[in-house]
Design a protein that fits this description.
Blueprint lengths: L5 H15 L7 H9 L6
Helix pairs in contact: 1-2
């Protein structure tokens, strides 16, 4: 995730959720970290 950037990962997950269903939606923790521009592993 850190190599792509968490914001990009969340964006991709949202796109997949729209196409394939809510099971591909990012969890609240990922959305929060993306909004704060934090990394996943640090």
């Amino acid at each position: 995730m850190d190599s792509l950037g968490i914001k990009k990962v969340v964006d991709l997950m949202n796109e997949h959720a729209q196409k394939y269903g809510d099971r591909f939606a990012p969890c609240d923790g990922l959305v929060t970290r993306a909004g704060l521009e934090e990394s996943f592993y640090k």
